[in-house]
Amino acid sequence: MFEVAIIGLGPAGSTLARLLNNPDVLCLDNKTFQPGGFEKPCGGLLAPDAQKALARFDLTLPKSVLVDPQLFAVRTLDLASGLTRHYQRFYINMDRQKFDRWLQTLIPAAVTVQHGAQVTRLARRPDGCFEIIYRQGGQEHTALARRVVGADGADSLVRRTFFPRHRVRSYVAVQQWFAETHTSPFYSCIFDPRETDCYSWSVSKDGYFIFGGAYPAADCRARFERQKKALEQRGFRFGAPLKTEACRVLRPAGWKDFCLGKNGVFLIGEAAGLISPSSLEGISSAMISAQKLAAALGTAPSAAEHRRYARGTRGLRLKLWSKLIKCPFMYQPFLRRCVMQSGLASISIIH
Ligand SMILES: Cc1cc2nc3c(=O)[nH]c(=O)nc-3n(C[C@H](O)[C@H](O)[C@H](O)COP(=O)(O)OP(=O)(O)OC[C@H]3O[C@@H](n4cnc5c(N)ncnc54)[C@H](O)[C@@H]3O)c2cc1C
User: So what's the pLDDT on residue 37?
Assistant: First the structure.
């Protein structure tokens, strides 16, 4: 019987496991970090909020996690108006798989970690404890815990099992990797209201050119391919895809989209809907919510733990919610055109 079972070891789960540092904690994650194993599709950009979270944890990023090149500006294209602008950015360009692996290495040895463990079912027993069924190495196992933490990302099984009626606005993120053939590597952000009311991006990484976007689920692959064609006209070079990946990505549309859990079930990171609705940046919220939960947990399961967690994350939720106010200026075609035409906060590129 574990006190806490953490499902998922992305930035949220790994941070929580590191901070709890307790032999009564079990972590289950389906990643193996072996070739062909599951890899989280991601732009791999560490935003200033995530850098600040690492700074507050007194953590420094190993060089091995970084990729080439580091980028200082985003090229923003509005395909509807034809406008292009450049904006200064303070991201760290990194290898997302190596970042996740590094966070996992920080989990203290006292914590039980099961890699390659796919949780398939969860149930609450009459005594209030949880049964967690997972497959590992071709065999089914059962673990018992007093609390369950869903740190299992956008498509959270924990959220779907215990809060089946909770809906969060979501998109399908499609991403492809190509050999980089542009003479000057770049990072771009693309608005194309014909294909999506969210956005698309491209980024160069260690000799690869990655293009991806977040699309409404219907026809997502066709929208992605049409966008590639439109961008080829604007000088983007794709060539043959080396890898195609897709996953769900959440984009909270209001306060009620956040779901923190109750009755011994806690949700952190993207599983809780904690991701920026304007930029889809979610690594910082994952780490911050994990820290807030670590601070909220007491010695025995209680409603007070949930109240403390809700209080602790209020600032984070307000911050994410306030980004909805920014959204029309980025995503409403007329307002975006006005902002881009004004040149506000943009930089001129000198060749
Ligand atoms: C295409 C794309 C690009 C993005 N780019 C960026 C970016 O550049 N910067 C940024 O800050 N954010 C970005 N995000 C958002 C960011 O990736 C997520 O918000 C962040 O990873 C959330 O962290 P998490 O720990 O909550 O969940 P995740 O990182 O999704 O981790 C969940 C973990 O749970 C595991 N898991 C899931 N289900 C099970 C199961 N049933 N059994 C066992 N294990 C399970 C998964 O393998 C994974 O390890 C992007 C998202 C997408 C989709």
Answer: 77
Radius of gyration for the alpha carbons in the chain, expressed in angstroms and rounded: 21
Residue 149 pairs in a beta bridge with 6, 266
Residue given tokens 């307002």 in the structure block: 335
Ligand 1: distance of its center to the CA of 303 in Å?
A: 28
Ligand 1 atom 50, closest CA: 42
Cis status, amide bond into 11, omega within 30 of 0: no
Q: What are phi and psi of 118, to 5 degrees?
A: -95, 110
Ligand 1 pocket list (CB less than 6 A) = 7-13, 28-31, 38, 40-45, 47, 50, 117-119, 151-153, 157, 173, 175, 212, 247, 249, 269-271, 275, 280-283, 286
Going from the Cα of 262 to the center of ligand 1, the distance in angstroms, rounded, reads 22
Mean pLDDT split into 10-residue runs, the chain, 351 residues: 98 98 97 82 96 98 97 96 97 97 97 97 97 97 98 98 96 97 95 97 97 97 97 96 97 97 98 98 98 97 97 98 94 96 95 85
Q: What is the CATH number of domain 2-340?
A: 3.50.50.60
Index of the ligand 1 atom closest to the CA of residue 275: 19
26-53 b/e (C-beta count within 10 Å ≥ 16 → b): bbbbbbeeeeeebebbbbbbbbebbbeb
Please say whether the beta carbons of 90 and 128 come within 8 A: no
Atom of ligand 1 nearest to the CA of 42: 3
pTM, entire model: 0.97
Domains of the chain by residue range: 2-340
Alpha-carbon distance of 309 to 143, in angstroms, equals 25
List of residues 6+ apart from 80 with CB closer than 8 A = 191, 192, 193, 194, 333, 337
Task: Please choose, from the candidates 279, 287, 238, the residue with its C-alpha nearest in 3D space to the C-alpha of residue 90.
Answer: 279
